[in-house]
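Data availability (excerpt). The following record was deposited with the supplementary files.
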Amino acid sequence: MVRAFVLLAMGGPGPPGPAPCRVLYARTFGTPPGSEEGSGDPPRQRLRRKEQMLVVARQVSSQCQLLQASSGRPSSLQLPLLPDQPVSLQDSPGGLFQLAPGDPFPGGVRVAWLAAFALAFAFVCDPHENLSLAEITLRRLASRLLASLHLLGPGADVLLRPDAIDSLLDRLLPHGQMLFLNERFLQAMDREMGVKAAR
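Predicted structure:
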């Protein structure tokens, strides 16, 4: 099961120093393993979830910077010339890493991440989850988010349209469960939602 989805703006070099990453959107599914449902007051639980998502975002940003530094290629923050065209994420950097129990989740989790320009997408998964399926689902979700929210165009409105992200998550990741989806289902969903995703 996917425990959480995180969309973040990765920090980059800035005049006074590197800019920190920023969580643009996060959604959790179910109760994290090892935590008691109903324990603690709701504001404290929300604060704890925000802290957990920020730890994941920082780790994803760090992993992406390490991957780019080790490959010898500087990070490309340049946007595509035609923002209306679907963006292929075939060669986008991505990876997997594990967070030990208590750091920051009560039970250990694995994180699958994918970077696209100055953005990154991440799934926080149970340790026994099918990570190949997680990576495929993450690529499918990321390409559709980029297309439907126009995240790479001027005036990207991810903060103003969480309902569009929720709608895509509900279809591709209902209740945090990953699905084996065929192309016919994806094409029908894209037509229904008016998404022009890259194939």
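Summary of structural features: The mean pLDDT is 79.
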